[in-house]
Design brief:
This protein is of the alpha/beta class. The protein is about 25% helix and about 20% strand. Strand 15 and strand 16 form a beta hairpin. The mean pLDDT is about 95.
Length: about 600
């Protein structure tokens, strides 16, 4: 019997493959094998699935022929070697020989994450370019990589959030087996790999879903494209499509977790939401695969229910991004007050971020004009992921500037310490640990004039409150992409080495003194603008957000074990700052103290 709830390819043997296409709007469909030119008629079932078995081998190209005369790729294609307009390719799920069948996995509290874009991470723009830098990540102390979305989009360069073939890793970076080889290499070095996935919409350009069935909602909309249909007619098959995609990445590619993009734009009135079903599937796979799997959500709701277990009426996510933490510190250190930064800037906001988790935890937001969020401190601190920068907070700026450009190295070092020595889960953005100055711009690739103009005008409109002018870099110019590629051959390798040492030491301190420990956060005695973090009786962190020297009031004998203003990190402070004695902090610096 053919498995009609399995979308796309299902290998029965090396040469016999089942194909299932959910297309209730189509009366007749056939499989066209391009190598032989043969056509196989599909059987239409009452469920709306069209099914067939074909004699083909891995690497064979194919398409579907519909009764309306259209020739389309498989919406569940495992690879689009010629992009969205080309044919699909058969990919054997057992075609890669894994080298590492077991590897260390980390809980959220032990995770040091780096978010990266495969195409912009190295000059090669391939999975191979990431492989070459694995030892660099290990040296700095990063144990988890979060890849920006890989689902095939239009064109050859894209952030990845407009995927239209959710099962097909982008051809721009290599083959599916190349991706598996990369994940295998990470696992061999003890690094976990998380994939960013987009389940709130499909991309607006290059997809085939409209010709097939009710994949899109007729009720809801979101800013990036048509919302996926999770709760109206035909949604059972669509939900199955998404859940199969979750299983595919975690099981077949051995990803250690998923980051779910913008779940606040996943609209679902079903008794059990698709997000909860994804959480339940994760738990099932953890048990069957015998390894830890993590789910991280992006949401603007500031709702602790996101990370509470389902048995306590939560969604069951393991963690969520905390934009509040970033905005509070960024606005204070840069004096930016436009757009959503208008809600931040007071030092009290930083205090709230450390003591409450969220800044907006049930208080009024001027920017959105209503009360936002709920109290977070009912769940552990390691349920929040914090950062100095990420693809949004850099790439959604007009010119893609990073913190070192906006606020200078001294404040950027303080910002890094504020994140890594916080009680929350730190996430770095690629190159941050090198003091990278290249921007990360929004970039895409399309020759469709109507679409490109829509994107250009849409970005200007969406961020008009930030005061952007019309001279911002063109997202569709290749130069915008090239400008965003990391500079590994910097003319100042000494600067990169100093930043590497800073991040290495911060992460080492976190691992030794912070991970798994409860914290106390408060204003330091003697200053309104210094945060004191205590982890147990013998370790303290002081974060000074002031432009003058400050001496923390530490009554017990102590030793300064790290000072971000130390010259070895590129600062101007005295070498003696890292020795014994009561600390004297430089402006905009952080010190870590061992209390005797």
């Amino acid at each position: 019997m053919i498995n009609t709830m399995h979308h796309g390819q299902f290998y029965l043997s090396d040469h016999e493959i089942e194909l299932a296409l959910w297309a209730p709007l189509v009366s007749e469909a056939s499989v066209v094998l391009l190598e032989s030119g043969s056509t196989v008629r599909m059987t239409r079932e009452e469920s709306g699935f069209h099914v067939a078995r074909v004699d083909a081998k891995e690497g064979t190209l194919y398409r579907f022929s519909l009764d309306n005369g259209k020739i389309i790729a498989d919406p569940a294609s495992r690879f689009q070697p010629q992009g969205v307009a080309g044919p699909s390719m058969f990919v054997n799920p057992s075609g890669y020989g894994w080298k590492f069948d077991s590897w260390e996995t980390y809980g959220m509290g032990d995770s040091i994450i780096q978010e990266l874009h495969v195409g912009a991470y190295s000059p090669e723009g391939k999975y191979s370019g990431l492989k070459e830098r694995i030892d660099h990540l290990k040296d700095v102390g990063i144990n988890t990589v979060e890849l920006m979305p890989l689902a095939q989009c239009y064109g050859s360069r894209n952030w990845g959030y407009d995927g239209v073939f959710p099962f097909a890793p982008s051809f721009s970076y290599g083959t599916p087996n190349d991706l598996k080889s990369l994940i295998d290499a990470y696992h061999g070095k003890g690094i976990n790999v998380i994939l960013d996935v987009v389940y709130n919409h499909f991309g607006p350009f290059g997809g085939v879903f409209h010709d097939l069935g009710p994949y899109f909602s007729g009720t809801y909309s979101n800013p990036w494209g048509e919302s996926i249909n999770y709760d109206s007619g035909g949604s059972d098959a669509v939900r199955g499509f998404i859940l199969q995609n979750v299983r595919y990445w975690l099981e077949e590619f051995r990803f250690d977790g998923l980051r779910l993009d913008a779940i606040h734009s996943i609209y679902d009135s079903s008794p059990t939401s698709i997000v909860k079903e994804i959480s339940s599937l994760k738990n099932e796979l953890q048990n069957s695969l015998g390894r830890r799997i993590k789910l991280i959500a992006e949401t603007d709701r500031n709702d602790p229910a996101t990370v509470m277990p389902q048995e306590k009426c939560g969604l069951g996510m393991d963690a969520q991004w905390n934009d509040d933490f970033h905005h509070a510190i960024h606005a204070y250190l840069t004096d930016e007050r436009k757009g959503y930064y208008s809600d931040y800037g007071d030092f009290d906001m930083i205090v709230r971020a450390y003591t409450n988790g969220f800044v907006y935890d049930g208080v009024y937001s001027r920017f959105i004009g209503k009360v936002r969020g709920s109290r977070f401190n009912v769940v552990p601190a390691d349920r929040l992921v914090v950062f100095t920068q990420n693809h949004d907070q850099v790439g959604n700026r007009a010119y893609g500037e990073r913190p070192v450009t906006l606020m200078g190295d001294d404040r950027a070092r303080l910002f890094a310490a504020s994140v890594i020595l916080s009680p929350y889960v730190p996430m770095l953005f690629m190159g941050e640990e090198n003091g990278e100055k290249n921007p990360f711009l929004f970039f895409a690739d399309s020759t469709d004039k109507a679409f490109t103009e829509t994107v250009r005008s849409g970005r200007l409109s969406e961020f008009s409150s930030f005061g952007w002018d019309t001279s911002i870099p063109d997202p569709f110019a290749e130069s915008s992409f090239k400008a965003s590629v990391l500079n590994w051959d910097s003319a100042r390798p000494d600067r990169r080495m100093k930043f590497n040492e800073l991040y290495r030491d911060l992460i080492s301190l976190r691992t030794k003194y912070i991970s798994g420990r409860k914290h106390i956060a408060r204003r330091a005695a003697g200053s309104e603008n210094v945060i004191e973090l205590r982890y147990g009786e013998n370790f303290a962190v002081f974060l000074s957000y002031i432009d003058r020297r400050f001496q923390p009031g530490v009554e017990q004998p102590c030793e300064v074990i790290m000072d971000t203003s130390d010259p070895k990190y590129g600062g101007t402070g005295s070498e003696k700052r890292s020795g014994s004695g009561q600390p004297i902090m430089e402006p905009f610096s952080a010190v870590a103290i061992s209390v005797h």
